[in-house]
């Protein structure tokens, strides 16, 4: 890093700390004592529910099938997404205690000595869901009707990326509209939704840019995958300069083309017998909500009439 880079990084950290401090001080978020984990208060929920409802209204013409899933998924389903190959550092699993009285006594003794006791737990064949669309691919099978299928899925996501940036949480919510169909219908879903998403986010009084992006693939092989993803324009992000014009803007939503990635691993086929393609658009609910607080202040009653109207607040 050059001195200029270091200064910029320090300034960015300061901007993040300032926003985090303001959200905590104004009673929007509650610090739970672990980076990227927060309790949410009434004002946060009011705005985030309004964001979610506006997102749903904006996609009403999709007539998507509503599906909701728990925040954990079976290991077998997680396996088929190949997530552990690409994002091992973000993945997290559930463990449970399966031992007998003796093992329990050993656990308590370790705890008494101030040692870690979670090592006494066994993997429970459950993973925390890192992207809310994951569970759907195991459900649609090999007879996807002509025109494809479109789903409305909102829920909890967990990614092991602890950070003091209030825009980077470990546990958060995304609302996805997922299409599974032909190569053409998947691309049309991804591309066709971008202008409306942009207009929606702009109607919230947030400055938005749509930029080609990549997922944070792990390791050296990951760098190659990330480059391919950008070159093939598989991912677009809706970014906003939440920390001002001098710093990298933050993604508050994304539009992703998976091509046959999930179709191949889950054995999904369209009416013509071909491997299905898929695409999803995702609204990051906490990030949009916090971007609103950052842009307009933490009291929604004082936001301008047009912003409140866009959110039906
Ligand atoms: P980033 O580039 O910031 O790491 P991402 O590319 O991994 O995000 P996606 O996988 O596209 O994000 O997830 C969809 C949306 O979920 C993002 O556009 C963002 O709004 C939200 N999101 C992703 N990661 C987080 C996080 N750690 N905390 C809060 N929201 C997040
Ligand atoms: Zn998805
Ligand atoms: Mg990204």
Please provide the ordered H/E string of secondary-structure elements.
HEEHEEHHEHEEEHEHEEHEHH
Strand order of the largest sheet: 3-7-8-12-11-10-9
Strand content: 15-25%
Main sheet record? 7 strands, mixed
Shape: globular
Overall pLDDT level:
96
Radius of gyration, taken over Cα atoms and rounded to an integer in Å = 21 Å
Q: State the share of residues found in helices, binned by percent.
A: 25-40%
Task: Describe the overall structure.
Residues 155-305 form the Aminoacyl-transfer RNA synthetases class-II family profile domain. This protein is an alpha+beta fold and 313 residues long. It has ten helices and twelve strands. The protein has helices at residues 3-25, 42-58, 75-81, 83-86, 101-112, 183-203, 219-231, 261-266, 285-296, 305-310; strands at 29-31, 38-40, 65-67, 72-74, 93-96, 122-128, 149-158, 171-181, 209-212, 235-240, 250-259, 277-284. A seven-stranded mixed β-sheet has the order 3-7-8-12-11-10-9. The chain has a three-stranded antiparallel β-sheet with strand order 4-6-5. It has a two-stranded antiparallel ribbon with strand order 1-2. A hairpin with a 6-residue loop joins strand 1 (29-31) and strand 2 (38-40). Helix 2 (42-58) packs across helix 9 (285-296). It is globular and about 60 Å long. The N and C termini lie far apart (45 Å). 33% of the residues are buried. It binds adenosine-5'-triphosphate, zinc ion (ZN) and magnesium ion.
């Amino acid at each position: 890093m050059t001195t200029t880079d270091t200064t910029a990084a320090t300034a960015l950290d300061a901007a993040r700390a300032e926003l985090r401090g303001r959200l905590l001080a104004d009673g929007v978020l509650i610090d739970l004592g672990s980076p990227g984990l927060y309790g949410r208060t009434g004002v946060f929920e009011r705005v985030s529910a309004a964001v979610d409802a506006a997102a749903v209204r904006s996609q009403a013409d999709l007539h998507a099938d509503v599906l909701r899933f728990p925040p954990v998924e079976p290991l077998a389903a997680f396996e088929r997404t190949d997530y552990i190959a690409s994002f091992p550092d973000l993945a997290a699993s559930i463990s449970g205690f399966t031992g007998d009285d003796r093992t329990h006594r050993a656990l308590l003794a370790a705890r008494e000595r101030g040692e870690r006791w979670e090592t006494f737990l066994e993997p429970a064949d459950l993973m925390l869901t890192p992207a809310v669309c994951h569970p759907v691919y195991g459900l649609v099978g090999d007879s996807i009707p002509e025109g494809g299928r479109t789903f409305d899925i909102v829920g909890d996501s967990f990614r092991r990326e602890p950070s003091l940036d209030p825009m980077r949480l470990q546990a958060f919510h995304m609302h996805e509209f997922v299409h599974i169909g032909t190569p053409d219908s998947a691309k049309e879903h991804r591309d066709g939704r971008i202008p409306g998403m942009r207009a929606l986010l702009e109607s919230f009084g947030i400055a938005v840019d749509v930029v080609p992006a990549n997922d944070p693939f792990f390791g050296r092989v990951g760098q190659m995958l990330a480059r391919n993803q950008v070159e093939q324009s598989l991912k677009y992000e809706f970014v906003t300069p939440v920390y001002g014009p001098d710093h990298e803007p933050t993604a508050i939503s994304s539009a992703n083309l998976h091509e046959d990635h999930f179709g191949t691993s889950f054995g999904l086929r369209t009416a013509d017998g071909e491997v299905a393609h898929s695409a999803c658009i995702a609204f990051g609910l906490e990030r949009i909500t916090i971007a609103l607080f950052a842009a307009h202040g933490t009291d929604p009653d004082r936001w301008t009439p047009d912003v409140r109207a866009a959110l039906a607040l």
